[in-house]
Every structure is written in structure tokens, then in C-alpha cells.
Design brief:
Number of helices: 19
Shape: globular
Largest sheet: 8 strands, mixed
Helix content: 40-55%
CATH architecture of the largest domain: 3-Layer(aba) Sandwich
Distance between the termini: 32 Å
Number of domains: 2
Number of strands: 17
Structural class: alpha/beta
Strand content: 5-15%
Radius of gyration: 24 Å
CATH topology of the largest domain: Aminopeptidase
């Protein structure tokens, strides 16, 4: 999977204009400065709590991740600054399990044969439609209103609010899936390769809930307990046969689906991943026959990786999350996600006139579990399963309020059929937003490619002199590191 470098970071590090290229020698970027800047910046968005920061140490030599507090334990993962380009190459070619094993065996030693002292910035990012690989993950599973009620992702509004006799009803899974289908067609016409994580009405492992309940589903309850999805008391209740469908669906079936989605996305190795959801006002209280009252507000938000809690990465059960923390600290995935998510928020505002969720809000998810991006209002770092495990840039989008008084009648229309699925034509508007955001993401990468091409198209002087300079700096680093 390609990892593009940041235009802002690279150009800032070069400290040179295009007009100066012909008259000045371009100095390569020192590995230590490049990765120390990246790790230091990323850390403030990856740790939500002091307990998380206490598991991480950044010093003059490198990055250390501890299994618990650094005050009482030895580091679990150690990466020295000059090893980080090699680590990013490993992320492209090897599984997480293989890399964890390698890091454990390496311990405090250097990787054998790694001699990187400078970053080679001439890594051209994906900047063209043709060949672009995009994973689309339509949120939720339901294909009927009854299934949507089990998911608790549906809208029913009394017709009286809209001066009509007939009530309005629709469900999010339908909107998300048909949005993905419309967007997929738009992207493929441009030459992109697109993967959807599941079929309509099915989980990512190929079954709906009722089909899964006819299998030996209790083995998945056992597996869920091993994966720490719930405690011993809930496990015993789930195994008893007395647990309601609602609990089994949300605690077992849905979690199994999340894991399958993450696996399918990473196996596809996309350049970009978009998780498609529709938003709703927080705390909306249903009444009567499961009705939702319309609201005046209409906001969007997008989640990206980050905001780990201390309890999530601490101790034996936090190994997988500590590794993801390490990946996000060192790779370009965090910044790439932030750029893409900010493009989505901008397109939602420009094209649909839907504002980003204001930063001054009292929402529980924002205060307790999220960190606001410094790039765009409405973009939140949050440690959701998919934002954590999916490799490469990812945006988990929550577009517009489904229960907004203007959106409700639009979303409730069945005036569009996509691949045999009846839905609202409003999904075409939202698909266009995502298409525009992806197009802007490519333009960002195209600009970076042009800058790099201009910077590196001229002669850099004597190659022998350049190599000797690299060797001297390498030896200097070795002396300082005591290696």
C-alpha cells in the first residue's frame, strides 16, 4: 500500500522555493528530524489521556512503546529514528503479527543492515484516477425495516410535521449502501478500482443476522469472549439462550462483522478507504410508535484515527492497539486521513450547505472519546475499530442529520432505483460530495508530485561527494548511538 508524504511537511522541511532550485543544492532530509517531527505531532492526536502518554516515550534516539507505565516496565517496541523508513516498508509487505514478532526479537538492537540517515522524499503519491484503489464500506447491514429496527438505525416521523397523512420512514443501511453504489459507478468511470465490503443486506462475512442464528453461532460467542468483547457475566448470559436478539446482534454478530470488514479492506490494500454513514442528532428520544421528532439542526462530522484511551492500550490485552498506535505514530496514515476527511467536510458545506459540527458542543462522544483535528472543524480523531485497524488513509463519514426537518422528507422519498434497490435520490447528492472530496485528495497529491518533480529534476552535483557526505553523517550517528 502506498503511503504518500505530506506536501506541507516536505515543503516546510525543504525551506526552499522552486525558483531557487537551479541555483542551490537541495539537501536531503535527515531521517531523525523528519520522523521526530512526525511522531511528535501525531502523538498529540493519538493519545486522549495521560495514561496513554505514559506508555509512550520520545527521546533523542527514537520511539519507545511500553506495555504499561514507562516508569515500571521495559519498552515493548523500540524504533530508532533511522529505522523508521524500514519500518514503513515492513508495513507494506508484512502482516502485523510478523512485524510484532520481528520487533520483539529485535528488542533494543538496531535492524541489521539498515543504514538510512536521510529520507528520500521522491516518493510520488497516488495522484491519478486510473489505478486508484478505493475501499467503500457502507455502514450497517439491514435490507428491511424490521432488520433496521434490530440495528436501531432507522427513522420514522409523523406525517403531520410535513402536512401529509402518510408517515415518513427509511433506514440508514439503505441510504449508505445506495450511496456507495452510486459513488462506485462514478469512480469506476474515472478508471478507479473500487471494492465494497459487503453485499446489500449481508454482513461482511456473507450472512444476515437470521442466517447466522441458524448456524453454530455460539462458537462466535466464545470467540468474542476470547477477544475481550464482553466480560464473564455477559458471556454466560449470551451462552444461556436467554439473551435477547438485540444483545446478541450488537455484542456478537455486529463485532464479528466489524472484524470481517477490516480484514477485507486490508486484504484489498486500498489507497483510500471511505466508511459511509448518515448522521443523526445526539440524544434524540423516540416516542409513541418509535417516532423521532424532527430537529432544526443539521450537522456533519468525520472520524479519523486517534484518541486512544489509556485503558485501551495498557496491559496484556492492549498489545494489538499498542501496535496500531505505533503504526499511526510513524506512518503517513494519520495525516492522509486528516486531509481526506477535511475535504469531505468542505464538500458537504460547499455543495450541500451542511455545516460541520461546531467545535463548541456538549456531545458526549466529543468530550470523552475524541480529539478535534487541527486541520478542520467537524473532523475528530476517534479510536473506532475501523479507524484503528484499517491501514492507509481512512475517513469514517457521518453526513447530515437524518432527523433534520428538511432532510427527512428528502431521505424518505423512494424516487431512485440503484441496482434494483429503491432509495432516495438524495443519495446522489451525497455521493457527489464524496466524489468531489476524493478528487480534491488527488489534486493535493498531484500538487505534491509537481513540487517533488521540480525539486528533483535538476543535477544535484557530484554524486561521489554526495555519497561521502551521507557516509560521514551515518558514522556520526553511529558514534552518537553507541553502535
Amino acid at each position: 500500500m502506498k503511503k504518500s508524504l505530506s506536501l506541507a511537511v516536505l515543503i516546510g522541511l525543504f525551506i526552499i522555493t522552486i525558483g531557487q532550485v537551479k541555483s542551490q543544492k537541495i539537501e536531503p532530509i535527515p531521517v531523525k528530524k523528519f520522523y521526530m517531527d512526525r511522531v511528535t505531532k501525531n502523538l498529540q492526536f493519538l493519545c486522549k489521556e495521560a495514561e496513554c502518554f505514559d506508555n509512550v516515550l520520545v527521546n533523542d534516539r527514537g520511539l519507545y512503546i511500553y506495555p504499561t507505565s514507562q516508569k515500571v516496565n521495559k519498552p515493548e517496541f523500540i524504533l530508532y529514528w533511522r529505522e523508521m523508513p524500514h519500518f514503513n516498508e515492513m508495513l507494506e509487505k508484512q502482516t502485523d503479527e510478523e512485524i510484532i514478532d520481528i520487533l520483539n526479537r529485535k528488542g533494543s538492537h538496531y535492524f541489521y543492515g539498515v543504514k538510512d540517515t536521510h529520507v528520500n522524499p521522491a516518493i510520488y503519491p497516488v495522484s491519478e484516477w486510473r489505478g486508484l484503489k478505493i475501499a467503500l464500506d457502507p455502514g450497517h447491514i439491514a435490507s428491511t425495516f424490521d432488520e433496521a429496527k434490530l440495528e436501531q438505525r432507522y427513522v420514522r416521523a409523523e406525517g403531520k410535521y410535513f402536512n401529509q397523512k402518510q408517515d415518513i420512514e427509511f433506514f440508514e443501511a439503505n441510504l449508505a449502501y445506495t450511496t456507495a453504489l452510486v459513488l462506485k459507478e462514478m469512480l469506476e468511470k474515472k478508471g478507479a478500482k473500487v471494492m465494497l465490503t459487503h453485499d446489500y443486506g449481508k454482513s461482511a462475512f456473507g450472512m444476515n443476522y437470521n442466517e447466522w442464528k441458524k448456524t453454530d453461532y455460539k462458537k462466535d460467542i466464545v470467540q468474542g469472549y476470547k477477544e475481550d468483547w464482553y466480560n464473564r457475566e455477559k458471556f454466560e448470559y449470551l451462552m444461556s439462550g436467554e439473551a435477547p436478539d438485540f444483545m446478541i446482534f450488537h455484542d456478537v454478530f455486529r463485532n464479528k462483522d466489524f472484524v470481517a470488514r477490516g480484514q477485507k479492506i486490508n486484504e484489498f490494500e486500498p489507497d483510500l478507504t471511505l466508511v459511509i454513514h448518515y448522521n443523526a442528532s445526539e440524544g434524540g428520544q423516540r416516542y409513541g410508535d418509535l417516532y423521532l421528532p424532527p430537529v432544526n439542526e443539521n450537522y456533519s462530522m468525520v472520524f479519523i484515527p486517534g484518541s486512544f484511551l489509556g485503558v485501551e492500550i495498557d496491559g496484556q490485552d492492549g498489545l494489538d492497539q499498542r501496535f496500531e498506535l505505533l503504526r499511526l505514530l510513524v506512518s503517513h496514515d494519520l495525516e492522509g486521513s486528516d486531509v481526506f476527511a477535511s475535504n469531505i467536510i468542505k464538500a458537504l458545506n460547499d455543495d450541500l450547505k451542511v455545516d460541520a459540527l461546531p467545535k463548541d458542543n456538549n456531545f458526549d462522544f466529543a468530550k470523552r472519546y475524541s480529539i478535534l483535528s487541527d486541520r478542520s472543524e467537524g473532523v475528530y480523531h476517534r479510536n473506532l475499530y475501523l479507524t484503528r485497524v484499517v491501514e492507509g488513509p481512512i475517513a469514517y463519514s457521518e453526513a447530515l442529520y437524518q432527523d433534520n426537518k428538511t432532510e427527512m422528507p428528502l431521505l424518505g422519498k423512494k424516487d431512485l432505483t440503484v441496482k434494483g434497490i429503491k432509495t432516495s435520490s438524495r443519495v446522489k447528492d451525497v455521493a457527489q460530495v464524496y466524489f468531489s472530496a476524493i478528487q480534491d485528495w488527488l489534486k493535493y497529491n498531484q500538487e505534491l508530485s509537481k513540487q517533488l518533480d521540480a525539486l528533483y529534476s535538476d543535477d544535484f552535483g557530484d554524486e561521489k561527494e554526495f555519497k561521502e557526505d551521507i557516509k560521514e553523517q551515518e558514522e556520526d550517528l553511529e558514534d552518537k548511538d553507541g553502535n
